[in-house]
Predict the structure of Transcriptional regulator.
Amino acid sequence: MERDALADFLVRRRDALQPADVGLTAGPRRRAPGLRREEVAQLTGMSVDYYARLEQGRSPQPSTQMLRALARTLRLSRDESDHLHRLAGHPAPERVGVSSHVRPVLLHVLDQLEDCVAFVCSDTDVVLAQNRLSLLLQGEHRGREGVEASSTYQWFTQPGAQDQILAEDRAMHSRVRVADLRATWSRRHQDPDITELVDALLAQSPEFAEIWARHEVGVKHLTTKRFNHPQVGVLQLDCETMATSEDGQRLVILGAAPGTEAHGKLRLLAVLGEQSVDA
């Protein structure tokens, strides 16, 4: 681990970003260029003390999970992310299956969607990036390893994972998830990440195994989704899914028209999130 070089790289990348680049308001009292340490720490999900020690060259070796989160926060390119891993004493991430690197411009788009729930996921439903409203509505889905990183794996194997969706809608959600995974498997069934995921689901979820046996691929995606949130109640949101590039990633946007009840509830959720941070 090259602590001094890592510290210098982090400082330079932090100084190169402006608050608007990551969806923050600059405020009137900002004097130093770039982001503050506490802003990087908050966006990455680490303590300010730990991030400060990274920049001071006196931290323990960060995990690859932490490095991926830092790469997203600092809007690093794929080459810069590889460089960050090497400075921290880890090999560059292997390019197995599809890329887990979210391009900086796409992260910028997420930050601008302030009144919508938005996230980027892979073709195995691994959530790679979330905006603030996605975190408030759906919770934190990033940071897991292996098959457990897939939200489809979580949906079929983890108790309570389906509770956020209304009970009468869950069967259709399950069919769509399995059909999407079947399409991914058809494209690249020899890749180890997809075979490991499907094998684990077949072994652990009778519901998944029963739907998988139907060989459904062309199941129509839901254009609206209903969520049951403990603070704001039921939200019916319009859903739009867009392929982002050849990397096999999808940008998912959930929103509601201004003036509707659902839009008002999203605004309320944003306010409740602010109050939680203040508290």
Remarks:
- The two ends are 37 Å apart (CA to CA).
